[in-house]
Specification:
It comes from Methylopila turkensis. The protein has helices spanning 7-19, 22-29, 33-47, 63-88, 101-108, 112-118, 201-208, 224-232, 246-251, 279-292, and strands spanning 52-54, 59-61, 93-99, 122-128, 142-147, 154-167, 185-188, 219-221, 237-241, 262-272. By secondary structure, the protein is of the alpha/beta class. It has an eight-stranded mixed sheet, sandwiched between helices.
Length: 303
């Protein structure tokens, strides 16, 4: 535990000793010369030594005062530098982006480190949820929404459109649509606001003109990310977003053995109307447009 005299008395001594004037020290500290004299007297009484030799028109430091001044001056200079440094450095700011679990895992997490490169003074918080967050209520600064416009009260910036295709592990050896009858079909629950028809195995079968397959059978998941993992693990064939599994297609752990593809919806960057110029929203949009969806479309090498 430090045993120090009152800070006020130390400041008064340092200013007076540096200037060799109680009057000038008082002007620097914004107090009266009498107050400075009183503070220094208290310090001398507490230390039991004289720090100044007082004359009728001037003051001079005693040997004890001369010894005390340099370390005190260094200490006050260090404190002033520390305070200025704290004042100069901005506090970390956090930008929160909400997106579905699958979009967060597949497209946002791999690019998260680049957010700090583009926005050095910001930290990124990713809110992964398939439920719609209340942007107006401040649950997130912005969101990636999937579905059908318009979105009342929100400003939307289209990022990319989607295509859905039958995908499976090459280990399953699927060659023709008829092969779907011998593997499990992987489904997931859709939560697309405003959509009259969503991609499904039944819709795909009708589009492809394939019969003899129970389109409702198989394994169902309540989220797209789990459906993707099941397909990668070889548990069956899934009707998946090619935009979300571009890496799996490129690496060969998933393949599209046949068509057709079904059109999906638009991924949009959204924020509350009037919030477009907020620093957090601008930081998120800068990152999304540069790193996550720079004019991105679903891969077309197998179309």
């Amino acid at each position: 535990m430090r045993r120090l005299p009152p800070l006020g008395s130390l400041r008064a001594f340092e200013a007076a000793a540096r200037r060799l004037s109680f009057k000038n020290a008082a002007a620097e500290l914004g107090v009266t010369p009498t107050a400075v004299s009183h503070q220094i007297r208290q310090l001398e009484d507490g230390l039991g030594v004289a720090l100044f030799e007082r004359g009728p028109r001037k003051v001079a430091l005693t040997p004890k005062g001369e010894a005390l001044l340099p370390p005190l001056r260094r200490a006050f200079d260090a404190m002033a530098d520390a305070v200025e440094d704290a004042r100069r450095k901005p506090s970390r700011r956090v930008a929160t982006l909400s997106a579905t679990v699958a979009f967060t895992a597949k497209l946002l997490v791999p690019k998260a480190a680049r957010f700090r490169d583009l926005n050095p003074d910001w930290d990124l918080r990713l809110h992964a949820a398939d439920s719609v967050v209340d942007l107006a209520g401040g649950e997130a600064d912005a969101a990636i929404r999937y579905g059908v416009a318009p979105r009342p009260g929100l400003t939307s910036v289209p990022l990319m459109t989607d295509l859905f295709a039958p995908l499976a592990s090459p280990r399953l050896g699927l060659a023709t649509p008829a092969d779907l009858a011998r593997v499990a079909l992987i489904h997931f629950d859709w939560r697309v606001s405003g959509a009259s028809a969503v991609p499904s195995w039944r819709l795909w079968g009708e589009t492809a003109g394939v019969s003899g397959v129970d389109w409702e059978s198989g394994v169902a998941f309540n989220d797209e990310a789990s459906a993707i993992q099941a397909a990668v693990a070889g548990q069956g064939a899934a009707l998946l977003s090619r935009a979300l599994v571009a890496d799996e297609l490129a690496s060969g752990v998933l393949a599209q053995p046949f068509g057709p593809e079904l059109g999906g919806f638009s991924y949009d960057f959204v924020c509350p109307q009037g919030a477009e110029d907020r620093p957090a929203v601008a930081a998120l949009r800068r990152w999304i447009e540069a790193e996550v969806a720079p004019g991105r479309q679903p891969p077309s090498d197998l179309l």
